[in-house]
Amino acid sequence: MNSRKNISEHVKAGLKGRYRRERLFRFLGIFSIAFSLACLLALFTDIIAKGHGAFQQTYVRLAVNYDPEVLELYNVRDEQQFALANFDGVVKKALQERFPEASGRSDKRELNRIISSNAIYTLADRLRADPALLGKTEQVWVLVDDDIDTYYKSLGDSEGAFTGRTSDRVQGWIQSLVDSGDIQLQLNREFFTRGDSREPEQAGIWGAVKGSFFTLLVTLALSFPIGVSAALYLEEFAPKNKWTDLIEVNINNLAAVPSIIFGLLGLAIFINFFEIPRSIPLLGGLVLTLMTLPTIIISSRAAIKAVPPSIREAARGIGASPMQVALHHVLPLAMPGMLTGAIIGMAQALGETAPLLMIGMVAFIVDTPGGVTDPATVLPVQIFLWADSPERAFVEKTSAAIMVLLAFLIIMNTLAVWLRKRLERRW
Question: What is the pLDDT of residues 151-170, one digit of tens each?
Fold first, then answer.
């Protein structure tokens, strides 16, 4: 009896210890998830707090007189005259009429710096669209300089306005515009429609977005068919020997290779050997193809393995050849998993920076690319360039671009999950 009692007590003590360890493990798991979510929330909060202001831009309303004498333009349809028109003089005259107290040379210099150089293009576009404006006056909202934009956006901050390089005189002029309602925040459409610029208030992400699109287009066009074909061959046709084992090991190893190594490979092969021009989407797509191939091959092989052997046996039983079994039966059933892997691979490629820096896609590109052979940059590299810029206004641009990139990544990963749930079959 005593021995049974001792055994029972020993079992109970062991169960208590096991339950205690299970509770501790469960607590650690919940704590890890909560801590990860808290860190993610803090990261998103910081990015949104810094970047939401970039989606709005400060504009000033000016009474602009398209004076032919100032413009030195008498025929709007004369392209040579129009190209040489003095729109900068028109802007300066409008500012001088708005602030007549700015009479000294230094005052005028500071006054003229309030308005962005983009204003002359705004006026030129309006006059070209409506030639009847020549000689007339109209109220126009024009973009301000980045320093003025930063100062105006910080006026309501609890820590006080960020004056930066704005002098007391400039702050007084801004306050005058605030009192008269001639300054306001508007949707920053140019952030989504322009390419990069040295001036923060004129910089946009459209060029980088198009560069990313063309680069991913090349990557998808090459990596998906090659990756699916390689996976189908290795699973359905390749003999099981030491050579295929070596290939499988190398594919798994390539999936763990740092991405910058693929950039060095692209630099050595595609640029130095094949002499492909730097900083074009075609080159970036080739490098990212090498990087994403292991991911697509591994996910495609997993999808092929998930197809039940009974499908293959039934197809063979009705006289299908091995090629027909693979292409007509296995491949269609494995395609949802392959698409999921391809989307995840494309999302990984979209967020890559290091390999593209190695092949020269870090160049300053103002014009938006029109194809895969035009000079371009991509969104992660654009973020890298802006983060390295000294102007304070680029902090907003950087965080806003990160928000756009995260939105694309979330959409792509959500699409992958939806496709898996929507198209998967349970056997």
Answer: 898 887 767 677 777 888 88
CB atoms < 10 A from the CB of 266, how many?
Answer: 26
368: DSSP letter: P
Query: What is the C-alpha to C-alpha distance for residues 83 and 134, in angstroms, rounded to an integer?
Result: 15
The dihedrals phi and psi of 79, each to the nearest 5 degrees, come to -60, -35
Amino acid (1-letter code) at residue 221: A
Total Cβ atoms within 10 A of residue 389: 15
What are the CA-CA distances from residue 192 to residues 66, 208, 211 (Å)? Answer: 29, 10, 14
Distance CA 66, CA 246 (A): 74
Count other C-beta atoms under 10 Å from residue 148's C-beta: 27
Distance CA 207, CA 222 (A): 23
364-396 pLDDT tens trace: 888 889 899 999 999 999 999 998 888 888 989
What is the predicted pLDDT for the residue at 390?
82
Measure the CA–CA gap between 231 and 386, rounded to whole angstroms.
40
Task: Determine the residue type at 74.
Answer: Y
* Residue type at position 25: F
Q: What is the pLDDT of residue 143?
A: 92
